[in-house]
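Hey L., structure's done. Input below.
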Amino acid sequence: MEFFRIKRDIPFMRHALVFNAISLLTFVAAVFFLVTRGLHLSNEFTGGAVLEVKYAQAADLAKVRDAVATFNLGDVQVQNYGTSRDVMIRLPVPERLSLGELADQVFGKLCAAEHGRVIEQSLVSDKGEQISRLACAVGEGEAQTEPLVRSRSEAVSASVGDELVHDGLKALAFVIVGVVIYLSIRFEWKFAVAAIIANLHDIIIILGFFAFFQWEFSLSVLAAVLAVLGYSVNESVVVFDRIREAFRKYRKMSTREVIDHAITSTMSRTIITHGSTEMMVLSMLLFGGPTLHYFAVALTIGILFGIYSSVFVAAAIAMWLGVKREDLVKAGRDDGEAPGGGAKGRQVQDPNAGAVV
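Output:
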């Protein structure tokens, strides 16, 4: 499906050197910030504390998040567990506070949000042990109520351990090798090298944004980065497939002209596909709340740079690596017609050409 068709090829490759110079500077800046500032890892990677509280009524999670946000701790996870009255808060422990101090202060803030005061209760456990716990009291005497109590607080280790990190890196390496082999078989090794460079370009730039602005890098953001890897590969394959078709169809065109024609002919598809995807991502960014915020940010950056890299990075690198008709098309008659008029000879339609991607 096409909303429009561009009749005259846009000379993208004429400006490839300028745009790739800009891309290189952006890539170097991203690497610089990753090395000097590093990623602001969430407590899923670094560990932290967990605080469990029990409300007398169904808990208002938005109210809980607002209360905890006053501590400026960064990535804080607030969720129900068990019932709607049970709330688990997972948060990082700053260096200035111990676990006990942090738990007491957070519980005090939650109690203040309910207009109560913190009291200590003595209880007898099921095993007959004397235990104490903190509760939030509102009112005095017989009119006193307890809107919430503190169930548990303890230190927790990172949910992403060293073994999982190493296994993830190995999996990523296998994916890269697999993509190179696939593109080398389907197209040619020059396209494979160009696609991998373009994909790594997108991923490093996303990480560079998170390092520069010190946004929280969580498991959801990692999922977005991996999604961008596959998304960018798909876009590069679409462009490469159209380049191969143009090489078969237009035998008199130069490599630069073929690439310009291939990219121009996919513009309508690119706008429809990426526009639809970006509408969905922006809806998550605007209405998804804090849980999906950085996930949507990472996807937005990845989609925008994925389009850019497929045109000005992957295609340009393939051109500079010397891709030519003989790499993709078997020897045949040397005649063809330029797209949009301007005959250069009799057009020969390859039986495998003309696929709509």
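The radius of gyration is 28 Å. The chain has two domains: 12-40+160-328, 48-156.

-- N.
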